[in-house]
Amino acid sequence: MKEDTEPLDTNSMSVVPPETGVIPVIPPADRQVPLPVKVKIPEQIKVMLIASFLIALGFGLIAPVLPRYATTFGVGTAVAGVVISIFATTRLLFAPTSGKLIEKFTERPIYIAGLLIVALGSLGTAFSPNIWVLLFFRAFGGIGSVMFTVSAMALLVRLAPPTIRGRVSGYYATSFLMGNILGPVAGALAAPLGMRLPFIFYSLMLFIASGFIYFKLKDTGMTTTMLRAQSNPPLTFKQALGFSNYRSALFGNFAIGWAAFGIRVSLVPLAALAVVTLMYGENGNLDNQAAMLAGVSMATYAAGNALSQNIAGRYSDRGARRPYIFAGFLVAGAATVFFGLAPNALWFIALSVLTGIGTGILAPAMQASLADIIGNKRSGGAALANAQMFADVGQIIGPILAGAIADSLGFGWAFGVSGALMIIAAFVWSPLRKPTFPVHLADEGYTGR
């Protein structure tokens, strides 16, 4: 019969009368049950990961040679230190302006402009005829640095799907970390070619990254036309302060800037010298042994960091973020407390690994927590810029104060105070504390967990 051979037309009927005895059919267009979908990393994020790697690779080229390059202009160690700190100082001073520029012109143009400014600053550094010109171009580069750093953070917030924000933060941090690991290796290989060459290579990497962003990140969907068409105003710094998680992030960034970034660069090499002196006395080539221990320490820190970043970021997306931030600060803080008391190289390296694991656990979760506050449908340039400022302040103040403590009381106290700061940050992020926030400013579904 015709009725038996023709297929059921589900497009023309939603329910079959019960007297026919046929099971009711609901057309696919009317289904309300969502199908499980695996969220993929957006293509725009992949572009940013590649650009991040190129930027970090270039920075890794210049980091080991910059202090020595400064001394070739006939200045002492103190002025060479100013060459390094002036970059961080202009980053700090220009951070609020960069946030305003992002809100006015959107993220992508400021990202590209920042990369180009740092590229020109690096070229100027390479061809500086005297120390004053060198200081100018380093300060100029700091302006561009904070522009592209805050813009990249804002783009990640906007482009990362809410359910994988932690994973995206972990991937981004790892791409930058890998560039920082490989950069010094390439710089060491290029050392015989002269100290100006790394700055030229860094400039080249930045030009390539800016071109890559310009051509491959053209259609970000939420950074130009759609953003301006939306009625959601930017999240101001004052409004962001209403979120307890944002206030916790400010303190957490300060602690990370001080302990994880600042003293890791300034005190770890000196602490390594103290350890090898304790192990071997005054015999042997202590400088070479200390340099090797410091290098291995920083490499193992990076390895521990890279190992834990992606794992913690992925799992923080599946549940609450605060427990990972709390645990990360505790681990990193405890390891830092004992770092200055390491009796031998084995303990020194083991504590470096633990510190790296701890910061790797907390970093993607805390970045994702900031993204949760801002959301995908509004700009948060000012809030992100101020969060970056707290990290920069910690990175500037930490080496100075911790160095003064080390000179007066020893490395044990210097690392002890720095580790205690991170432990305090852990309790600021305690999962037992209930987050507070202005409901009318929060995204739908935001809990602050």
Which features characterize this protein?
72% helix, mainly alpha, Growth Hormone, Chain: A, 2 domains, 17 helices, disordered N terminus, 449 residues
Describe this structure in words.
With 449 residues, this protein is an all-alpha fold. The chain has 2 domains: 39-230, Growth Hormone, Chain: A; 234-382 and 389-449, MFS general substrate transporter like domains (Growth Hormone, Chain: A). Helices cover 72% and strands 0% of the residues. The protein is built from 17 helices and no strands. The protein has helices at 2-5, 43-62, 66-71, 77-105, 107-126, 131-159, 165-190, 197-216, 225-229, 237-240, 244-266, 268-280, 286-316, 322-339, 345-374, 381-409, 411-428. Helix 4 (77-105) runs antiparallel to helix 5 (107-126). It starts with a helix and ends in a 21-residue tail after the last helix. The model is unreliable at 1-36 and 221-229 (pLDDT under 50).
- CATH-defined superfamily of the largest domain: MFS general substrate transporter like domains
SS element count, helices: 17
Structural class: mainly alpha
| Poorly predicted runs of 5 or more residues | 1-36, 221-229
Strand percentage lies at: under 5%
Give the overall pLDDT as a whole number.
83
